[in-house]
Amino acid sequence: MRHSLKHSLLLLFLIGTLLLTGCWDQKDIDTRGYVLGLAIDSYPPDPQSSESAGPNQASPKEEEKLEKMQLHTGDPAYAMTIQLPILANADMLEGFGNQSSEDSQSWEITQIGNSFFSMNREMASRTGLSLYYEHLQVLLLSEEVARKGLINILDMFMREPEMRRGVKVLICPGEAKSILDVAPRIDKYSSVYLSGIFENSNRNSRMVYHTNMGDVICALHDGHDFILAKALSTKDEIKTSGGAVFHNGKMVGWATEIEVEAINMIRNTYTGGVILVDAPGGEEGRVALEITNEKAKVTPIVNGDQVSFRIDIKVEGDYSEDINLHTHEKLPFLKSLEAEYEKEIQDLCTETIESMQEKFKADVFQFDRILQAEEPGYWERMGSEWNSIYPEAGVSVHADVNIILTGI
Amino acid sequence: MKKEKLISPQVMTLTACGILGIDILIVQRDMVAVARQDAWISLILGGMAAILLGSVCYYLAHLYPDMDLPQIILHVFGGFFGRMILLPFIVYDLLYLGMSLRIFAQALKMFLLSATPMLPIVVLILLTAGYAASKGIFAISGIMDIIFPLCAITILGILLMPMNQIHLGNLKPVLYKNTGNVMKGILTGYQQFTGFSTIAYFYCYTQKTKGTFKWYLAGLGIPIFLYVALTVVTIMVFGPMDIGYLIYPTLTLAKSIEIPGTFLERAESFAAILWINIVFVSVVLVLFRTTRNISEWLHVKPKYQNYVIWGIALLLIGIALFIRSGTQVLLFFSKMKKGNPIFGLLIFPCITAVAYIKKRREART
Q1: What would the pLDDT profile of B311-347 be if each residue is shown by its tens digit?
Q2: Domain boundary among A255, A274, A307
Q3: Which of A191, A359, B8, B241 is the Cys-Cys partner for B215 at CB 3.0 to 4.6 Å?
Q4: Does any domain span residue A222?
């Protein structure tokens, strides 16, 4: 009798465990609002970039009534836009609804305020969905916002457990929201489309691959300068190449595509790309080298209070395209071609370093990090003056290129 | 009479599970706060100290192979003094269990179950742990045999997956004007491995073979290796500065895992297997230890020992939920662990010394 009571109690506990676990957090999948992209613009917006209303849309003035919120303190400073997928219009449900191919696949909601967490919560008064950030793909910031500095913006993104460190952070020269408005031709959602572009980083070295939230947070905490990817868009297309240069946590300018290529090389974030040189020996034509492997070693050279850096870059690649030179794949020609590539890489890196030193005074190569690790004594003495030392620091670049395959 | 015996490999799993605990979520933060980028060196040295003191503990258990720790203490020091010595063990284990349950509940709430109150989380884990503890050491050991490989594989997964994000430079400079902090960190490192004393509670149930001590050392070595590796990888991924901002670095490390494409976007969910299981095994073992201490302290007969378990469970709910602020809980847990070296460095060697003298006298008479 006592035994059966014990067993019944145990059974009750087990059933209770099954029924109660996660009960409070139970949420149906269709009631979640999966935020795919998030854009932050400054407010009030630049008058030139104000949007125009579509045929069935509210006018910008009408929209602003909903977008503005009453603030506890301060004035509105930011406009935060999120992209939510409209699951009812997704292809997987075709046949169940009467949606047409022209139905919008996503909903972009903008909220104006001065705290991202409160803006996020305010959005709950405009949608029946519970906003969920675990699947956030991209965080887009307008140039204006980035120039004001990131440290004040990113706190919610560091603190909120739903946020992921792998979210891509990009800077847009104009309005960040415009990127979310893009209607891509293949993908359904602009955020997913943009995040997918980074999968090609092993084919194109002109995009900033290490542009994750985690990298930004680490750099901000450690006080290092860094570079973030740049995003440009048309109505139906997005491009990311080039980068935004950050010094002391604030954006100070733009790095060109080719400069990003050199920065990737020096920082060992180069995962693949193409270098083009004119044919050696004054011959006509150009030859493309697909870089398959790249490794840079930065060595600080300390001499009293002076510091300089030696950068050794080892490159392996395949002879990928030959314009006007089909018969030249002989060994001496390949050797002279390797020398051309070495010169090209050295010039490219040297010019980029000079540009970053002179134009922006931004240590995007994170030489300070290398000094802290390799020359701690020097860093202890001179670290506080790094901002004035860096622009004057001498850098020598040495490249060693090996052509591995010739393609034919 | 204890007829059924634990085999030597089970000594390894029980010892390893006794060391792994809620600390696995915060070990890197505690260590980096003291020794910065050299935290891993302190942890290795702390681990070596734990192996040394663990050997003392093993020797103590070996002196009285048919008794567990509370029985040995009462036998060696007598009823009154023995109970006085047992009291700090009981208080420490109760506080450690309560805080472990609380940190587990608040981490679970933060990362997975945001709307679930902490009470049912604490109650449910106590129900399962209490049930396991009530079935005795052999049932506990069987559970550990299943859970331990699962935990070890998950930790290895968390260690290997972020390899594409590591920066070797984050570990440098090594020992540059930091030797003092590294020395201070040895104590903090040692505090992470104090579960080594669990051997004194189950040695009496173990088959004594030549290899038992080696299995015990393996049981000590595995968690030390895993904690050191976890600290090294976390420093290489985040850097010592960033770790200072992270509340649960191990969970953040798991969250930073990136698998190309949109496949398995939330790979860190697998880490839940790790910490839910680790906290469970830790709670079961500490609960078993506390039950044995209290039972001997109150002179409870073995057939009534289960009432002690459920009584402790009720008390633990109160301890776990007593402090309201999560930050205060973490601070209290860190401070509380600082008291732990008193057991390892002072009480255990003293008990062993007195037990050795008494044993020799017993042998003469």
Answers
A1: 999 999 999 999 999 999 999 998 888 888 888 788 8
A2: A255
A3: B8
A4: yes
Average pLDDT over every residue of A135-156: 92
Report the residue of chain A nearest B266, measured CA to CA. A134
Considering the domain B8-350 in this protein, what is its CATH number?
A: 1.20.1740.10
Q: Are B121 and B106 in contact (CB under 8 A)?
A: no
pLDDT, tens digit (0-9, with 9 covering 90-100), for A260-304: 999 999 999 999 999 999 888 777 888 899 999 999 999 999 999
Q: Domain of A279: which CATH number?
A: 3.30.300.210
Determine the distance in angstroms separating the CA of A196 from the nearest CA of chain B, rounded to an integer.
7
3-state secondary structure chain A: CHHHHHHHHHHHHHHHHHHHCCCCCCCCHHHEEECCEEEEEECCCCHHHCCCCCCCCCCHHHHHHHHECCCCCCCCCEEEEEEEECHHHCHHHCCCCCCCCCCCCEEEEEEEECCHHHHHHHHHHCCCCEEECCCCCEEEEEHHHHHHCCCCCCHHHHHCCCCCCCCEEEEECCCCHHHHCCCCCCCCCHHHHHHHHHHHHHCCCCECCCCEHHHHHHHHHHCCCEEEEEEEECCCCEEEEEEEEEECCEEEEEECHHHHHHHHHHCCCCCCEEEEEECHHHCCCEEEEEEEEEEEEEEEEEECCEEEEEEEEEEEEEEEEEECCCCCCCHHHHHHHHHHHHHHHHHHHHHHHHHHHHHHCCCCCCHHHHHHHHCHHHHHHHHHHHHHHHHHCEEEEEEEEEEEECCC
CA distance, residue A210 to nearest chain B CA (Å):
10
Tally of structural domains, chain A: 2
Query: Can you give the residue range of the structural domain that contains A217?
Result: 30-46+60-255
Task: Give the dihedral sign, CA B201/B315/B341/B328.
Answer: positive
Rounded to 10 deg, the angle between the B8-19 and B212-243 helix axes is: 20
Q: Do residue A276 and residue A306 come from a single domain?
A: yes
Burial class (CB in 10 A: 0-12, 13-18, 19+), B172: middle
Question: What is the ipTM metric for this complex?
Answer: 0.84
B283 and B64 in contact (C-beta within 8 Å)? no
Amino acid at position A134, single letter: E
A246 and A305 part of one domain: no
Strand order in the sheet with A250-255: A106-113, A78-85, A37-42, A138-142, A168-172, A226-233, A238-247, A250-255
CA-CA distance, A53 to B60, in Å (whole number)?
Answer: 81
CB contact under 8 Å between B116 and A192, yes or no, is: no
Please report residues of A whose CB lies closer than 8 A to that of B177.
376, 380
Question: In terms of Cα–Cα distance, which of B8, B16, B77 is closest to B223?
Answer: B16
